[in-house]
Amino acid sequence: MKKTISAFILIGLILMSGCQQTTEEQPERAEEPKETNPEQEKNEDTQEKSEEELEQETADKVISLIKAKDVEELTNYVHQEKGVLFSPYAHIEKDAITVKKDEIANTFKSQDKLTWGTRDGSGEPIELTPIEYYNEFIYDANYAEADEVVLNPTEPRGNTIKNIDEVFPDTHVVEYYVKGTEENGNMDWKALNLVFEKDQTGEWKLVAVVHDQWTI
After folding, report:
1. What is the reported pTM?
2. Got the DSSP string for 169-199?
3. Between 111 and 11, whose confidence is greater?
């Protein structure tokens, strides 16, 4: 009888040992690779950038398109509802020309003269074709390689009262400044202010191109 009981105990110990060994020897289950979403990664990368960086990137793209006279591509950066205003001087007049987004391309192909404001000093009307205005009051200096690029400038460059904040209170400005020459006493400096406002999707869109220079 004792032998029978001992045999049962021995068999039980062997079975328990085998189960324990089987459990310990089971390989760990490999973790399944996580699925990646390229669009989500892109959004996360965008969110990591600050508002200033995003605005600067947009402004640099716009200034390069202005230099290249790529009006078709530039249209993609213009505010859908507000269009883009053009001012020859830092003080924006009430009758400044505003061009709608879907009219920009045709406007700058036109040979018709428009009145863009009044000339500093003489008070004569600025009557120019769009391409003439571009050459004199938009890309009249190499702003793509500006001496200074200032985000939301607070100090005026000359004696003209800047009123961009009054006309466009909920906007940000990127100023591209080209310094003057010594032979002209540094008075021939130029600056181009690109004014951006967020649209309904939260993207920075161009609402104004404001030229600046020394005025009398």
Report:
1. 0.77
2. TT-EEEEEEE---GGGTTTT-EEEEEEEEE-
3. 111
